[in-house]
Specification:
Serine Threonine Protein Phosphatase 5, Tetratricopeptide repeat, 12 helices
Length: 244
């Protein structure tokens, strides 16, 4: 009891200092909550902006699909088959070569705005990946390269990073830069995502083949056979190796 009494006596003598400490703790805690709240609100705003940008891309795709010339159909044959007219769908132009900046101008501008305005890593990564995919799917892989590269550099985790490196490699390969694609594929493998390893090794072997380096292509196929036995990748590697 005496010790407890002494403690409270000391506390009463220094109550101003104690009060200052308590107030400081409350202020800092409140500031932390405010910063966290603002950060989450900003992240939610970024996600909404990305959603609207993707919707704009889809609207652009639908408009382009609807403007596509319709196939000429024999009226008699159509009547005999009682075939319903095919509705325009974005899927019909999914891999059609297009001028992306012209045909998807609104969607592209909105996606680029997300990458410039926000710093939420997940949202910005997805916006960059969307831009890369848009250029890649519509026959402009050279324009996709920089977006995949930026996505890889700012990826929010191992799998997204591996996916972005993989896409970056495909874009380089499709741009006729197989020699540049190989080290990018290798970086994707080194991240350690097992689910992508088979496709990446096949891509590396394919690039060696494009560079007329049969020895390295054969060596990569052997790597697949030893590291991924009894898989579809091994079966593909065996068949492709036999054609060298």
């Amino acid at each position: 009891m005496a010790a407890l009494s002494d403690f409270f006596n000391e506390l009463s003598k220094n109550y101003r200092a104690v009060l200052a400490v308590v107030v400081a703790i409350l202020v800092l805690g409140g500031a932390g909550i405010l910063v966290s709240s603002r950060k989450e609100a900003r992240a939610e705003e970024a996600r909404n902006a990305l959603y609207l940008a993707i919707q704009a891309v889809q609207a652009d795709a639908k408009r382009v699909a609807e403007a596509e010339p319709k196939p000429v159909v024999d009226p008699k044959a159509a009547k005999a088959k009682q075939a319903a007219p095919v509705a325009a769908s974005p899927e019909t132009i999914e891999y059609k070569k297009l001028d992306v900046d012209a045909e998807f101008s609104r969607g592209v501008q909105m996606l680029k705005a997300v990458t410039e305005k926000y710093n939420d890593s997940r949202t910005v990564f997805e916006a960059r990946l969307q831009l890369g995919d848009l250029y890649y799917r519509h026959g402009q892989p050279a324009k996709a390269v920089s977006w995949y590269q930026e996505a890889a550099q700012g990826a929010p985790g191992p799998f997204p990073k591996s996916l972005a490196f993989s896409s970056w490699g495909y874009a380089l390969e499709s741009s006729g830069k197989a020699s540049e694609a190989i080290p990018v594929y290798e970086k994707a493998i080194n991240i350690g995502e097992a689910s992508l390893k088979g496709d990446l090794l096949l891509a590396i072997a394919r690039c060696h083949g494009l560079l007329n380096d049969s020895a390295k292509a054969r060596s990569t196929y052997d790597q697949i056979l030893s590291q991924l036995p009894n898989t579809e990748y091994a079966r593909q590697a065996e068949a492709l190796k036999a054609k060298l």
